[in-house]
């Protein structure tokens, strides 16, 4: 689908206005960042970059798009002609998908003619906010599962087809092992996984007949759903009968799925029955409106679970369904000269960071342990000793001296005019990047409840530039 019209009307209205009022090719830089972490976490897992790059590479206005815009009777013919022949000339820098990113840090920047980059705001935020939200939720859920595979089961509850497909992709970036969503599995090379629904069991005269029919067709994929009638009185005993028959025929039974009731009590009793019957290797999968909180509770109770199937709470990030990433102007060329730009807000919290920027992750020297990030102006060289200022205006000890670190720049160019982009597209490689990046962060920042805040600083140059622009604004 061509997404060129997937924007808010005001972006076109501004672009048409820029076309009339400002030099056409003057460049602008916008930053994408967010301020608040979902679920009171301390970081977001950045995701959606592959789709951003694809959307920008295919960005074109079709003749009927132009006709539609003309029909609004808002825009000049010159501007519509500009759109009809538009080829984006934008440079995008971004941190790699899967990277944990903290509040206020630019995770993506776009530079290009002001008219063009203004038009991209809504689409870029749509792509990045959604996938980063779901990847972040999946990280929480898979952390709670402590290494047990999590299958993404959310297609039926996702808020529309796109949310199910790209949500499944993001879920894998955040740690899921597989998806039941066949389209997502095909598009992103994710293992397709699944069991059966209650309707299968109900479609046969009785549960045992239903299990036998399944086992006959899928003798090596027999994960039987045991809660249609009574988990312990019929579901597990019938599953054991079928497992014995499968074993006698030379097959290895997979296990059972429990989808209702007190999962801990049922899983403990089912485990005992399976073990007593000689099937200690049969796996128990749990599903039913699970999320990280329920999973933690189940595991704390000692529920002997091997796999999880997780739908609605993951695919909608139900407990915290919004990531409010924003797109803010950071610099503008005026007569060929760059000017840093700022939005000064009533609250310091919402005041933006001006200028072209770079984000560095700081490590203790010779180690893989990160202890802070620092946002710098893109053209400054980090000194060995930095009198850094907290990026969080709420922090009381706002100034610290940073020394003895190695610095890793996080933002790199992923798209430039005339160059084909090569961002990683292997979702499991991206998942691995996320996993490794997390092992380098302090463990306490990854707690699911009350995580430690990870320090993010500004260089003195960036902090001074921000203050200078705030002061200049107040003098006006
Ligand atoms: N031991 C447990 N500790 C905490 N939460 C649990 C436990 N067992 C199940 N849950 C969760 O409690 C919620 C409600 O479970 P409940 O027993 O009401 O399901 P159910 O109504 O039997 O299922 P269904 O409506 O699908 O038939 C679900 O989110 C489930 O995952
Ligand atoms: O609960 P989720 O995390 O979204 O996991 C997916 C759910 O989808 C199926 O339920 P179904 O649509 O058959 O409805 P049900 O709630 O009656 O089982 C399945 O049995 C799970 O319960
Ligand atoms: O395969 C399953 O068990 C499944 C898939 C989607 C939703 N619920 C269950």
* CATH H-tier superfamily of the largest domain: nicotinate phosphoribosyltransferase
Extract low-pLDDT stretches.
none
Spatial ordering of strands, largest sheet: 13-12-1-5-3-19
End-to-end CA span: 46 Å
> Radius of gyration, Cα only, in angstroms?
26 Å
The small molecules bound here are:
adenosine-5'-triphosphate, 1-O-pyrophosphono-5-O-phosphono-alpha-D-ribofuranose, nicotinic acid
Task: Return the structural class.
Answer: alpha/beta
Mean pLDDT: 96
Shape: globular
What is the CATH architecture term of the largest domain?
Answer: Alpha-Beta Barrel
Number of domains: 2
Q: Which CATH class of the largest domain is shown?
A: Alpha Beta
Would you give the CATH topology of the largest domain?
Answer: nicotinate phosphoribosyltransferase
Number of helices: 16
Please bin the fraction of helical residues: 25-40%
How many E-type strands?
20
Approximately how much beta-strand content do the residues carry?
Answer: 15-25%
Largest sheet: 6 strands, antiparallel
Domain Nicotinate phosphoribosyltransferase N-terminal: 5-129
EC number: 6.3.4.21
Family: Belongs to the NAPRTase family.
Function: Catalyzes the first step in the biosynthesis of NAD from nicotinic acid, the ATP-dependent synthesis of beta-nicotinate D-ribonucleotide from nicotinate and 5-phospho-D-ribose 1-phosphate.
């Amino acid at each position: 689908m061509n997404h060129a019209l997937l924007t808010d009307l005001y972006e076109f209205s501004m672009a048409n206005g820029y076309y009339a009022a400002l030099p056409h090719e003057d460049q602008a830089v916008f930053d994408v960042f967010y301020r608040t972490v979902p679920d009171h976490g301390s970081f977001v897992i950045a995701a959606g970059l592959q789709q951003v790059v694809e959307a920008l590479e295919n960005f074109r206005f079709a003749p009927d798009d132009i006709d539609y815009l003309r029909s609004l009777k808002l825009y000049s013919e010159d501007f519509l002609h500009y759109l009809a022949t538009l080829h984006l000339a934008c440079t995008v820098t971004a941190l790699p998908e899967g990277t944990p990113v903290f509040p206020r840090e630019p995770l993506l920047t776009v530079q290009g003619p002001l008219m063009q980059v203004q038009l991209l705001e809504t689409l870029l935020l749509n792509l990045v906010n959604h996938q980063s939200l779901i990847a972040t939720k999946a990280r929480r859920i898979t952390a709670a599962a402590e290494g047990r595979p999590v299958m993404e089961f959310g297609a039926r509850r996702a808020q529309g087809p796109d949310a199910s497909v790209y949500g499944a992709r993001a879920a894998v970036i955040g740690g899921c092992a597989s998806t039941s969503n066949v389209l997502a599995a095909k598009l992103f090379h994710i293992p397709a996984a699944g069991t059966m629904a209650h309707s299968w069991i109900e479609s046969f005269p009785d549960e045992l007949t239903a299990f036998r029919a399944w086992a006959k067709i899928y003798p090596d994929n027999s994960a039987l759903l045991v809660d249609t009638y009574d988990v312990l009185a019929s579901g597990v005993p019938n599953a054991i009968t079928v497992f014995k028959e499968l074993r006698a025929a030379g097959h290895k039974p997979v296990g059972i799925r429990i989808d209702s009731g007190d999962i801990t009590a049922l899983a403990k009793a089912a485990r005992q029955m399976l073990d007593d019957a000689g099937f200690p290797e049969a796996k128990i999968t749990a599903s039913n409106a699970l999320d990280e909180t329920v999973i933690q509770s189940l595991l704390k109770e000692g529920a002997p679970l091997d796999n999880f199937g997780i739908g609605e709470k993951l695919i909608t990030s139900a407990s915290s369904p919004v990531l409010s990433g924003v797109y803010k102007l950071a610099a503008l060329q005026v007569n060929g000269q760059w000017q840093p730009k700022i939005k000064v807000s009533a609250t310091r919290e919402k005041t933006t960071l001006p200028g072209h920027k770079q984000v560095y992750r700081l490590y203790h020297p010779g180690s893989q342990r990160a202890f802070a990030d620092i946002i710098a102006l893109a053209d400054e060289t980090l000194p060995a000793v930095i009198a850094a200022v907290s990026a969080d205006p709420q922090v009381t000890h706002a100034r610290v001296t940073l020394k003895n670190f190695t610095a890793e720049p996080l933002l790199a160019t992923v798209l430039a005019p005339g160059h084909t982009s090569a961002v990683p597209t292997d979702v499991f490689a991206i998942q691995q990047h996320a996993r490794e990046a997390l092992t380098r962060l302090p463990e306490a920042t990854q707690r699911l409840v009350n995580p430690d805040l990870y320090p993010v600083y500004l260089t003195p140059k960036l902090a001074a530039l921000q203050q200078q622009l705030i002061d200049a604004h107040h003098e006006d």
